[in-house]
């Protein structure tokens, strides 16, 4: 007789420790049921990993599952695993029926990531139970300290449970007791226990593997030949002895009055299931863990190779209750060797969870890869060309992130990923795209209202995170007919405010006042100014109807918006910091007002959210990969993140630079974003660059690509990102957010605060309150003065510059200042003038001259805008910046209703506050104040810079 089938008559059911789609579909499982009387199937993460990861068998099912909509890798896996479990359960249903619910089960394991999370295990087990919808399903729960209460709870609600990762007899007793308590609860609640089945999967071979390893060490150390023999005799014996004694416990646990009461109600005993019964050592008979554990009311789940071996040469006898004293002696002798079985079994649980988690990582990685392949161009592609050294560092870090579950911890808001301070309070952005999708109807209603009002323009008044996201949207997307044209104003420069006032038709403009805190000076003064203008145009009583506010709940702006009867107030999420807020009302309210298709934008975005999700291992996770590359490049001195955005998405860098700089630039560390520099030949760059090239699919520029290839060849790290279209911009917002958070972890900083911006704000406030009291800003003395310009700096900078050759004229000071620039530095031009096309060009010309001459990274920024963006890194980041602040007389100032200070005064105070913080931090800073005509002054400065560089 077939030895496998013969086990049946010894009271043992054989289950198969294997599952794969084709195996069930092609009828192989059915064959084993018929020929070998196989009565069940067990699966685990390693089994699924093998099935899904190492074949293309699942490519089509994954593609089919994605047809009904994108899914996260975890959801995708669950979807296909459930299909597999269901089909195996259906094939085994006749066994289940024939054995009246004793056999015929298929086991599905809860995620190993939840092994130490009771609540999570319960929730997942209940969800799987409901989704699989088969009476012959068993949910596998590990016998960890946190798994035990879950087992009791699940049994108590009528769910059949297979307890896995069980190694110790003592833990087995606890498991059986949890089962009994669960049954009692279920019965007390009026349930019929006959429908509940449970097995306790007692692991065998893994114990021998560990015991043998330690025995081998002892054998190697032993000098006495008799001692060597005694140790050798224990090899391959411990696991079976341990299992046999567990069975003795079983016999006691499922007997007696307590058990009788339950059997009277129809309860089934929780059988011991021998798991891990494939031999791992070639020294042993391949059927050993079946032959030695045959006994009544047990199950043995065997891998296919063991099943084949047993069918071929297995020997059947009632072995389980044989030689119990000998088994006890084995364990006693083993204890005498000084090796602790308790330690082995405890470590095996921890190790078992880790092994299954490792398998799950591989599995999710494989699913993520298949998902990405199947989605193709729907998710922006990313390639990293890092060079050998950085590549190796990133690979090592990727493995470290995987092993320490950092991406899952990041998503679970574990502040220890960063500095262990308040990071957990700032992670609302992780889920904001999904949260905002749920609000689409409201956005659409708002968009309809905006359209119905007939507004021709919509102007966002805000700074930093409250304005840069809307600006990218405004610049990237074409005007949608019927909706207002979207503009952004983020300045206190009187000329810039006046230009905006002239650009729009005030009476037909919607103003979106955006400030998370509500207390930021610029949006408040801009609001006062335009509220005054709208009041003049349409009447004070109707002005509020032209305004909406986006602000966090309870802010001072909310109060004012209510008093002034704004048309709407949108609340931001206080758990999202400004620079991470674009995929929240701060980006989406302006987008809705402009008539953009938010549904499309968010739908594409959530695909990237899934690609960067907690279930996507670091190696397959584009956000993590980019972040690790940026972070490690930074640590290695390549800290100038040079962003190259193509024509269609040219403004993306303006948003990304705030995110990167304000998040990472602090505590003397950080990344310095370089946006808008023209791409050059390798000779104009130092070895401090990390390039990120972004473009939309189809945007080709041969000259640009050649230059990029040359940089890569010269050893610069180059990341290339291709967006499928501008509609996929949201994907990049999210990719960069994750990447920045990851880079922050690598740098060891808190990426969610901005300590040094606050200092500049305090200085500015001191200066403006002095103005409010006295009517003028405190006097200051230039280090050198000419009819065209004055130069300012602090004593320390002045002394150093003088030593370096600065004397009576402006050119000598500039020369001395630029002489201080050394490789690895960056030069930032910080201009407090109107940010218009001409001035952008002028600044661009200056920076390119500096870059090409000094071969350092350059920034061309406008104040006060950059104060809420890169300003944090300039002050708090690495001390590698050389700053030239440019201020100028305002040709025409502008009064602010309800303020004594004008726009010009506030801007001047901001520039001075900014400069004071730079010099307080001993940064290399010089300020040039242009007098008279601005255009003439800028031209002269341009010339002076060129001269100073030569
Ligand atoms: O939205 P708020 O509170 O006005 O802040 C604007 C910007 O100011 C900062 O707080 C600091 O500059 C930024 O982080 C933020 O995006
Ligand atoms: O339920 C079955 C177990 O997961 C399996 O038997 C473990 O076997 P292994 O130790 O060979 O991985």
UniProtKB/TrEMBL annotation:
Enzyme active site: 140 (schiff-base intermediate with substrate)
Alphabetized InterPro entries for the sequence: Aldolase_TIM, G6P_Isomerase, SIS_dom_sf, SIS_PGI_1, TAL/FSA, Transaldolase_2, Transaldolase_AS
Reactions catalysed, as given in the entry: D-sedoheptulose 7-phosphate + D-glyceraldehyde 3-phosphate = D-erythrose 4-phosphate + beta-D-fructose 6-phosphate; alpha-D-glucose 6-phosphate = beta-D-fructose 6-phosphate
Signal peptide: none
Pfam families the UniProt entry points to: PGI, TAL_FSA
Keywords in alphabetical order: Cytoplasm, Gluconeogenesis, Glycolysis, Isomerase, Pentose shunt, Schiff base, Transferase
Subcellular locations according to the entry: Cytoplasm
GO molecular function: glucose-6-phosphate isomerase activity; transaldolase activity
Source species, domain of life: Bacteria
EC number(s) given by UniProt: 2.2.1.2
PROSITE patterns: P_GLUCOSE_ISOMERASE_3, TRANSALDOLASE_1, TRANSALDOLASE_2
Class of the enzyme per the UniProt entry, highest EC level: transferase
Keyword Cytoplasm attached: yes
Biological or metabolic pathway of the protein: Carbohydrate degradation; glycolysis; D-glyceraldehyde 3-phosphate and glycerone phosphate from D-glucose: step 2/4; Carbohydrate degradation; pentose phosphate pathway; D-glyceraldehyde 3-phosphate and beta-D-fructose 6-phosphate from D-ribose 5-phosphate and D-xylulose 5-phosphate (non-oxidative stage): step 2/3
CDD domains: SIS_PGI_1, Transaldolase_like
PANTHER family in the cross-refs: TRANSALDOLASE (PTHR10683:SF31)
Function: Transaldolase is important for the balance of metabolites in the pentose-phosphate pathway.
Family statement: Belongs to the transaldolase family. Type 2 subfamily.
Protein name: Transaldolase
Species the sequence originates in: Tardiphaga alba
């Amino acid at each position: 007789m077939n030895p496998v089938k013969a086990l049946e008559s010894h009271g043992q059911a054989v289950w198969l420790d294997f599952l794969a789609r084709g195996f069930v579909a092609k009828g192989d499982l059915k064959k084993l049921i018929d020929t070998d009387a196989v009565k069940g199937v067990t699966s685990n993460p390693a089994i699924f990993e093998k099935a899904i990861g190492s074949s293309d068998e699942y490519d089509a099912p994954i593609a089919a599952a994605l047809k009904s909509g994108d899914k996260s890798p975890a959801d995708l896996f669950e979807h296909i695993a459930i299909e597999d479990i269901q089909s195996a359960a259906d094939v085994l249903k006749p066994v289940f029926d024939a054995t009246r619910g004793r056999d015929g089960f298929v086991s599905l394991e809860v995620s190993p990531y939840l092994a130490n999370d009771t609540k999570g295990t319960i929730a997942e087990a209940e969800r799987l139970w409901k989704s699989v919808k088969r009476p012959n399903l068993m949910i596998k729960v590990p016998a960890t300290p946190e798994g035990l209460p879950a087992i009791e709870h699940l049994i108590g609600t009528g769910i059949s449970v297979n307890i896995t990762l069980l190694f110790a007899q003592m833990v087995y007793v606890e498991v059986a007791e949890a089962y009994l308590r669960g049954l009692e609860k279920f019965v007390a609640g009026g349930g019929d226990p006959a429908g509940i089945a449970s097995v306790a999967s007692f692991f065998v071979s893994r114990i021998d593997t560990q015991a043998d390893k330690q025995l081998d060490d002892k054998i190697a150390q032993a000098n006495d030949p008799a001692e060597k023999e005694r140790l050798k005799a224990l090899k391959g014996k411990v696991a079976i002895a341990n299992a046999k004694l567990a069975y003795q416990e079983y016999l006691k646990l499922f007997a007696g009055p307590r058990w009788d009461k339950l059997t009277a109600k129809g309860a089934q005993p929780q059988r011991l299931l021998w798991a891990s019964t494939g031999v791992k050592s070639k020294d042993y008979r391949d059927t050993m863990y079946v032959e030695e554990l045959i006994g009544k009311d047990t199950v043995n789940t065997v891998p296919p190779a063991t099943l084949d071996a047993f069918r071929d040469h297995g020997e059947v006898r009632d072995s389980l209750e044989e030689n119990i004293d000998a088994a006890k002696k084995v364990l006693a002798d083993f204890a005498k060797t000084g090796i602790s079985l308790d330690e082995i079994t405890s470590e095996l649980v921890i190790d078992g969870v880790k092994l299954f988690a490792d398998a799950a990582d591989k599995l999710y990685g494989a699913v993520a890869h298949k998902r990405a392949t199947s989605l193709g161009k729907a998710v922006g592609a990313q390639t990293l060309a890092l060079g050998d050294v950085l590549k190796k560092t990133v690979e090592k870090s990727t493995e470290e992130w995987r092993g320490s579950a950092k991406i899952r911890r990041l998503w679970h808001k574990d502040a220890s990923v960063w500095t262990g301070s308040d990071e957990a309070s700032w992670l609302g952005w992780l889920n904001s795209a999904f949260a905002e999708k749920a609000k689409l109807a409201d956005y659409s209603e708002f968009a309809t209202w905006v359209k119905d009002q007939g507004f021709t323009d919509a102007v966002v008044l805000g700074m930093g995170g409250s304005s840069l996201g809307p600006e990218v949207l405004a610049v990237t997307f074409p005007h949608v007919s019927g909706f207002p044209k979207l503009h952004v104003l983020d300045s206190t420069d009187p000329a810039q405010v006046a230009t905006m006032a002239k650009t729009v038709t005030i009476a037909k403009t919607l103003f979106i006042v955006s400030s998370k805190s509500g207390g930021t000076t610029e949006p408040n003064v801009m609001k006062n100014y335009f509220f005054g203008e709208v009041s003049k145009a349409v009447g004070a009583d109707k002005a509020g109807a032209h305004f909406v506010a986006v602000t966090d709940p309870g802010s001072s702006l909310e109060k004012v918006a209510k008093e002034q009867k704004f048309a709407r107030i949108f609340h931001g999420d206080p758990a999202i910091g400004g620079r991470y807020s674009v995929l929240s009302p701060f980006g989406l309210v302006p987008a809705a007002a402009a008539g953009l298709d938010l549904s499309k934008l968010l739908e594409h975005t959530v695909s990237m959210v899934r690609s960067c999700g907690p279930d996507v291992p670091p190696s397959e996770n584009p956000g993590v990969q980019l972040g690790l590359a940026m972070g490690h490049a930074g640590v290695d001195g390549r800290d100038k993140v040079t962003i190259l955005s193509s024509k269609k998405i040219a403004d993306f860098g303006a948003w990304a630079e705030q995110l990167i700089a304000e998040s990472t630039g602090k505590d003397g560390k950080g990344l310095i974003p370089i946006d808008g520099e023209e791409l050059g030949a390798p000779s104009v760059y130092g070895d401090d660059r990390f390039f990120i090239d972004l473009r939309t699919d189809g945007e080709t520029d041969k000259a640009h690509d050649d230059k990029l290839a040359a940089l890569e060849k010269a050893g610069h790290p180059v990341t290339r990102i291709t967006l499928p279209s501008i509609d996929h911009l949201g994907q990049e917002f999210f990719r960069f957010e994750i990447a920045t958070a990851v880079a922050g972890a690598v740098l060891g900083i808190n990426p969610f605060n901005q300590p040094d911006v606050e200092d500049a704000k305090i200085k500015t406030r001191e200066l403006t309150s002095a103005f409010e009291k006295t009517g003028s800003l405190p006097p200051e003395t230039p280090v050198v003065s000419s009819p065209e310009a004055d130069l300012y700096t602090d004593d320390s900078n002045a002394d150093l510059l003088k030593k370096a050759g600065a004397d009576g004229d402006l050119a000598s000071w500039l020369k001395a200042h630029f002489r201080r620039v050394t490789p690895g530095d960056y030069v930032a031009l910080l201009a407090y003038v109107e940010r218009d096309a001409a001035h952008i060009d002028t600044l661009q010309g200056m920076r390119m001259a500096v870059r090409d001459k000094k071969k350092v990274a350059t920034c061309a920024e406008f104040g006060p805008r950059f104060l809420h963006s890169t300003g944090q890194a300039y002050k708090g980041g690495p001390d590698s910046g050389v700053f030239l602040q440019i201020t100028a007389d305002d040709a025409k100032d502008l009064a602010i209703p309800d303020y004594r200070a004008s726009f010009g005064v506030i801007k001047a105070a901001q520039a001075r506050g900014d400069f004071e913080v730079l010099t307080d931090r001993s940064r290399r800073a010089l300020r040039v104040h242009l007098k008279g005509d601005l255009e003439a002054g800028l031209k002269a400065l341009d010339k002076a810079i060129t001269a100073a560089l030569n």
